[in-house]
Structure formats: structure tokens, C-alpha cells
Design brief:
The chain is an all-beta fold. It has a single domain, classed as SO1590-like (AOC barrel-like, Beta Barrel). Helices cover 0% and strands 73% of the residues. A hairpin with a 2-residue loop joins β3 and β4. The mean pLDDT is 93.
Length: 131
């Protein structure tokens, strides 16, 4: 049975470094960040994010290990997610999955899809999963 939850989160730490900034085209950065999830998912996420940021648009790809409790079950799992968009368009998540086989503890066997959103209502993630 598939379950869908939406969970607000906050970014506690964002440590970014530019690794390529050409005269023309988007700059490329690498960031390490820590998130805090509250609600049906209580815990923290640690992610490595690669970004492309330019006047014409932006995009990112990330791998994130989440540690905590998902609806009463404790463990860890890995999310891979990314998005891209033009400067005048809202960012769309093109990829968001729980990596198969990444679940530990009571989250072993966790699989699913993930969508992150940032807008006027804040930051949140929607997770549709099976366990």
C-alpha cells in the first residue's frame, strides 16, 4: 500500500563553494547542507548539492541521507533529487526518488518518489512511499 505525506522542513546549514565561474554561462557550485524535517518525518537530512546558476536559469542535483523517524519507524534512507528551470519559470522537480536498498533499521525496504517545493508557503517535501 502506498502512503503519501507532506512534511515541512528548514535548512539549518548551507555551505557553498563555487568551483567554476566562466566569463559567460552559469556558475557551478557545490554545497553541503543540513535540513530539519518536522511532522510525519522527524529528523535530519545531510545533502551534497551541485548547482548551475545563471541569468537564464538554474538547476541542481543532490544526494541526501535522511536520519529519523518516518511515521513511527526509525532508520535512515537516501533521496536523490534534482530540478531545473528557466529564470522566469518556477523550478520544477524533474527527479526525486528514494534510492532502492538504502533504507536501514525499521525503514529497510523503503521505496518511493519525492517532490520538494519552495514557495510563499515555505519549504516542504511530499513523499509517496511503500514499505
Amino acid at each position: 500500500m502506498q502512503t503519501t505525506i507532506t512534511v515541512p522542513f528548514e535548512i539549518d546549514t548551507w555551505d557553498e563553494a563555487t568551483y567554476d565561474e566562466p566569463a559567460a554561462g552559469p556558475k557551478l557550485t557545490s554545497a553541503t547542507l543540513v535540513k530539519r524535517y518536522r511532522g510525519p518525518l522527524e529528523g535530519a537530512g545531510q545533502a551534497r548539492v551541485l548547482t548551475a546558476q545563471g541569468d537564464g536559469g538554474r538547476g541542481y542535483v543532490a544526494s541526501e541521507r535522511v536520519s529519523g523517524t518516518l511515521e513511527g519507524r526509525t532508520g535512515t534512507f537516501v533521496i536523490q533529487h534534482g530540478a531545473a528551470g528557466a529564470a522566469d519559470e518556477p523550478e520544477e522537480v524533474a527527479l526525486g526518488v528514494i534510492v532502492g536498498g538504502s533504507g536501514t533499521g525499521e525503514l529497510e525496504g523503503l521505496r518511493g518518489e519525492v517532490a520538494f517545493r519552495h514557495d510563499d508557503d515555505g519549504a516542504r517535501v511530499t513523499i509517496s512511499y511503500t514499505l
